[in-house]
Amino acid sequence: MDDPYQNNVNQQMTEGGEYTYTQDGSGQDGYPYQTDYPPQEEDAASDATEGADDDEQMYEGEYQGIPHPDEIKEARRAARLEARKKARMAAQQEEEEENLPEQYESIMEECGHGRFQWMLFVVLGLALMADGVDGFVVGFVLPSAEKDMCISNADKGLLGLLVYVAMMVGALVWGGLCDKMGRRKCLIYVLAIDLVFSFLSCFAQSYGFFLFFRFCSGFGIGGSIPIVYTYFTEFLQMDKRGEHLSWLCMFWMLGGLYASFTAWGIIPHYGWGFAIGSEFQMHSWRLFILVCLFPALAALVGVVFMPESPRFLLENARHDEAWMILRQVHDTNWKAKGEPERVFTVTNIKTPQTQEDEFIEIQSDTGTAFQRWTVRHMTMLQQVMANIMSLSAPELRLQGLFLVIVWFCLAFSYHGLGVWFPDMIKYMQYEEYESKVRVFHRERVERFHFNFSLINQIHREGEYIHDKFANIEIKSVKFEDSLFENCYFEDVKSTNTFFENCTIKNTVFYNTDLWQEKFKDCRMENTTFLHPKKGCHLNFQEENDIVIYLVSFLGSLAVLPGNIISALFMDKIGRIRIIGGSMLASSACTFLLLLSFSQGAVICWQCLFYGASVAAWNGLEVISVELYPSSKRYRTAFGILNGICKFAAIVASFIFAAFIGITKIIPIFLAFSALVCGGFVALKLPETREKILS
Question: 512-551 in b/e burial notation, b at 16+ Cβ within 10 A?
Fold first, then answer.
């Protein structure tokens, strides 16, 4: 590129070695310039300047602040050099970023697949198991907790809602943070938060504190799934990802089995609890929550001894740390295979350092400790938001939309039916129980001692004169428009028992749980309550139906065949066929629910549905890790998708629960439609089984 001054400025050498610059090629109006001036006295220099000719004058623009032409040329030359340097650096960085996935894949192939991956498999599996356990805890303890803490139906629904909201927020937050803080560090935080607040919830005596602690626990464990899959994926070769990620999914099933089995073995045993005074009660359902912490505790201990993901370190220009970890993986695997002499041959890994990381480093060298902390975390937040916004790029928008639809449809049907199955079974039990109710009309009982339990009865317009009710249980009994006169109630336990529009005269209630809430529109004359058992009281035989635990246990066990099939065929037939086929097969199982008219039939179709749908979950989680190309996006994307999953679960829980006892056609039709829609949309997703993790 020609300089604009080149054509009108000519350079000539004089006999004295001086260089003269003339404009327009004429030599006139030029300015003589000598590179090295001899030292002069101040007065002499002034005289020389005053007496010089025009051709021998110094550059007058110097006194007017006008830059010399040579300075302009030098500045422009420096700008061109800087531009070329930046272009070369950008091209080199782009080339290094393109080469990193292939280079990392070849490194993982050299490290091999062996003992290290299996150790990490167990540790991360326990973290996934902890997430599975957390999904069942609230459902199992709620029947006992609502009686122990006097939780109303509205507050009971709020507990389930807030736990899912917390998991949704946790998935969104931790999915983005693990790109900036590291997989291992975030997973340690996630498990620690879950452990601390779940432990505190065991001892919370008020519903408000219990709700707060379960919310914080859900926020922690909600981020485990995107972190676990990301962490494990970055230690796997391309041809191992599909199979081993599918095997990892089985730990979620083990979490359900563990929760169901321990709930069945602990919660119904009232004597396993203890009390400290009258204010602190530690019933067996609280011990169940405590036992459910063991998977998270074991996972936390294991993660502490695991290294950070080398892929994360390379993406953040921490070359030496990544190389040491890769060498550790290599040596661990080949030593276990009987080849300890094999040498790790990788000596150089090209890793570009991002401008974001440089910005954090520069800011960390200045200011106070609080300012550095603020700048570092604000920058991190900005980068996470930038990653989220980058997911709307044109090249990612369509496939991202398809993936969101599939995630939402599968989660909506799966979690909706997950609520519908146990509630439907309870409703069938209730209908069966109601069909066996005994009705007594206008009976008169005088001077009789009731020393046997009253169960599932309705007494209308009865008269009870000088009767005694002692050491009995009254269960699901209603007295309507009845008269109790000169009666005596002692050591009576009641469940779902009410007195409506009754007249009670000269009657004594001693050490019973019959209190104000049991009497509706009743008239009392000279009635005495001595040592009443106020508040809510647990009845473990009533609140812990073995069928509910059995249903959850069988539902968790039913996913085992689907897990095995998806693991064996994930890399053979591809992710897309697994997802689409599994969702369409699940829709068929859902449609057949219309033919179920008994508890046994509902349980059977539930097991088939869970077994068929688990393959879609496995394929969806694998493809979500592999689909997004940017190294700084797919963990954030995975967190967003898990947040959408929890949102779908919240919506489905309300919709499906609203139709229990009204109709089963609408919930089944909604689940069927969602699965069919998601199954066909899944076929539009790109296949990723032969894609290098880029």
Answer: bbbeeebbeebeeeebebeeeeeeeebbbeebbbeebbeb
